[in-house]
Automatic annotation (TrEMBL):
CDD domains from the UniProt entry: ABC_NikE_OppD_transporters
Keyword vocabulary terms for this entry: ATP-binding, Nucleotide-binding, Transport
Keyword Methyltransferase: no
Record NCBIfam families: oligo_HPY
Phylogenetic classification of the source organism: Bacteria, Bacillati, Actinomycetota, Actinomycetes, Kitasatosporales
A molecular function GO annotation: ATP binding
PROSITE patterns: ABC_TRANSPORTER_1, ABC_TRANSPORTER_2
Protein name: Oligopeptide/dipeptide ABC transporter ATP-binding protein
Similarity comment text for this entry: Belongs to the ABC transporter superfamily.
SUPFAM superfamilies, alphabetized: P-loop containing nucleoside triphosphate hydrolases
Coiled coil region boundaries: none
Amino acid sequence: MTTAPPLLRVESLRITFPGRNGTPAVRAVDGVDLGIRPGEIVALVGESGCGKTTLARSLLGLVKPTAGRVTFDGAPLDYSSRALKAYRKRAQLVLQDPSGSLNPRHTVYDAVAEGLRIHGHHGDERAAVAEALSRAGLRPPERFFLRYPHELSGGQRQRVVIAGALVLEPELLVADEPVASLDASVRGEILALLLRLRTELGLSALVVTHDLGLAWNIADRVAVMYLGRIVETGAVEQVLTAPRHPYTQALLSVLPEASGDPVVLGGEPPDPSRIPSGCRFHVRCHVLAGGEAERAGVHRACRGQDLEILGGSGEAQVACHWARAREDTAPAAS
């Protein structure tokens, strides 16, 4: 996994939406590099409104980039209808709300078989549906064929959605908050299912979440996103046990198992149509507000010097003047 070339690669991706009534354009994704290798699970973490879902949708061709490109299996994504149809057999989306993803008038069988019918499957449809349901943990699968969504629990509905993605035998799952609408008792089961699918099928996955605890439990690597850009990335253990960016530190500080006082961020994230100069986090940064950035001699850079886009190679990286200054002045290990 560490040496294989990325199955999915995002390069300098930007997605801008036109403003309304003369307002500036919204820079929803403002320069992202990201790679996902075969069999790797990457967690994309950040607050609501930071651009996570827009980025995830762009990976499936649902939103066309303003600039940059998405590459899958070495080939740039083709946005023609025919090419996207073929691509979506290899890359599937799992949404947050299973109730909204399932037609209440369709049985479980029809919901799972829908993808096969769209893509003109020529094999044994019943066997394929049964296998997908079984892989998703609904056994015996025949017991669920004629049930309707309202007859299932929330966890069972999410398993049906996952089965509907698995039936096409994809190589990549993009899961947008896959357990956010589920009871705590069911979340662990769905996360365990995703991990088992990675082991059994070699699936790659991008899991979009605001929950760093979820990232810790499922991901190999984490990318922390703020205001349209990834600000810290690396192996999940490295980022979540020794966060370098003040934003990552703040997100981790409010977890129940965190030690010390929680970091309270001031205000809401800035308007993505008016991204601040310098570090985009500086207007809410407790390190800058507390004088630590000034003591490190980077307070002016924080307010006025933009940081480059982090690479998508997978190595540990941080977009923070203060964090880099600390590392530059840290004594070398003997």
